[in-house]
Write a structure and sequence with these properties.
By secondary structure, the protein is of the alpha+beta class. It has three helices and seven strands. The strands form two sheets. It has a five-stranded mixed β-sheet, covered by helices on one side. The protein has a two-stranded antiparallel ribbon with strand order 3-4.
Amino acid sequence: MSDVVSPETRLAELGLEVPQVAAPVAVYVPAMRTGSYVYTSGQLPLKDGDLIRTGKVGADVSPEEAYECAQQCTLNALAALRAEIGDLSAVARIVKVTGFIASAPSFTSQPQVLNGASELLGKAFGDSGQHARSAVGVAVLPLDAPVEIELVVEVR
């Protein structure tokens, strides 16, 4: 029996759960594997089929609420990843996180919002969760979501 703790167990210890894969809102697949890499489609902060927040960060959505949205997006990305590879323990490394943050014109704290994703991945995957990333402010996202996140993951 292995002493290695699975990513899902680590998330459960934080009171978080990887949900079922969110249904696509257009024509695409939630994740695509090529060789030893999996690319997730952009994931919105959907929970039980509904956005947990809508609007622009810095206007309608606080940075703290957006951080929570980034966490939910990441859980949804992990759900898409798990559906593609079967078990999150097969993750060798989180390679890249790209976060899109629908921002009010004066909002400039996109990196702090994206910490919601980065910190969750670090807690779930340890050193393998450390990654390169981009935090991009945008005018609007699908369904008026405040945050959208995509992952690039290396798998065993």
